[in-house]
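Bench log, entry 3. Co-assembly request; chain sequences pasted below exactly as received.
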Amino acid sequence: MTGTPTPPVLEIADLHIRFSGAQANAVEGVSLSIAPNEVFGLVGESGSGKSLTASAALRLDPPTAQVTAARLEVCGLDLRAPRAADLRAVRGGLASMIFQEPMTALAPTRTIGAQMADAALAHGARSWRGALQDAGGDLANVNIKDPERVLRSFPHQLSGGMRQRVLIAMAFAGAPRLVIADEITTAIDPTTRVAVLDLLTTRAAQTRAAILFISHDLGAVARFCDRVGVMQSGRLVEVGAARAVMGAPQHPYTQRLKASLPGAGTPRRPLLGEDTP
Amino acid sequence: MTPVLAAQNLCVRYGGVSSAQAHTAVNDVTIAIAPGMAFGLIGESGSGKTSLARTLAGLQAPSAGRILFEGNPLTPDAIRASAFRRSIQFVYQDSASALNPRMANWRCATEPAHLIDGLTGDARRALAETLFRRLRLPTAALDGFPHALSGGQRQRLALARALSTSPRLIILDEPTSALDATIQAAILDELLALNLSGVGLLLISHDVAVVRHLCTDIAVMKDGEIVETGTAEAVLAQPQSVYAQELIAAAMLEG
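Structure output for the full assembly:
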């Protein structure tokens, strides 16, 4: 994707995030750029700063966080000291986010249709009826066979995989340029996981949207991402083509992460050395 | 060799006064876990893995069928007997909520040995120190409390606790699902070392890669039934059931 004349959908340079009173920065000098239609994977363990970095892209960082950056732009809009209008244009418009736990990301007391229509109206849909109709189409686009029933359903009436499909449909409803997917397959079963990831990347390819894919699932990252960044303790320690980074990791931490995968090595041989703490 | 634990035509049903309302979580399951096996039970959420494991551990009663412990029927009296409690130990997924937050780590690690074998005083403390060294927990944490441990250390403490009675079989319900990749790898290495030293494992997991790595034998569960079982090598290389094929194909994404 490098060398394309179109500007990046996400441009982050020298991002620092700190919490007052904390010893160290939660995010420490992260720079990354995501091109249109690129699938960028961000991997690392809990607390490495990957979710925080992604939330800063939509300025969903917690109110107690202090965010500084040389650049923090979504489709050219500077979000370092964002105007309210720019934030509205970015959130749910230019960029959208799919969260890990679909049960908490959906309102439990409202139907799927009502929630989808609400979002559409907030982003310029003319009528409720039209918005609902569009929502039905969006659900059909994520391979939901009976969109009419799902529109009338409450979240608890759907399976985990179905709820995650609904969230993907909602994320793509505003024709975003960037979709941030934060650990979206952690809460669902393995056979559903592949279908959900296939769907996410297919929808992105169809709509030419870019994806920032946050995950600790290295297998999924290697299969679905163009490029990958590896985070450790708030720093981006390695960036490169997904196949190269996962195939022959350069940074010791990435090597350790790869060695940790139980699926890759010889069965019943220690994964890590004896020196493991 | 007599299996440590075996289930014969085991059924577990929940709820409902009439059979129409009841939900069958485990349906007609027959398995045998030989001494020293690392037996993996795989399947998706709701397939009945945990119900089967809890019933095998004597934590809940079967609705039908029976469990054999070292060849003898596991009656309510047998479950209360120290021989069974000593031999079969259970480790939960979320050790943060499974460990008593108000019990010092060294007491926690040796509580089963205290309750079952009456271990007290210096002998109990000495066992705690041995277990901490064996599971590579910092001895400085002996007098601390679980909340101050990391997730991986807490799971090591849960393992230490299970080992305190020198069990023949440890039943582990998703023991690494809540852990990061490198921490999971360290715990898997620990479990492998335990198994190679002769401790039997019954590992419940939805993660085929974890089971493939650790287990000698595998059973695949779906909708309460065992759809496939055999040596790990045979089941993974040539799964016979469509469901096992799907599950393994989905997991081999990692490869």
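Chain A touches chain B at residues 45-46, 160, 189-191, 193-194, 216, 218-220, 223, 256-257, 259-265, 267-272, 276-277 (CB under 8 Å). The two ends of chain A are 40 Å apart (CA to CA).
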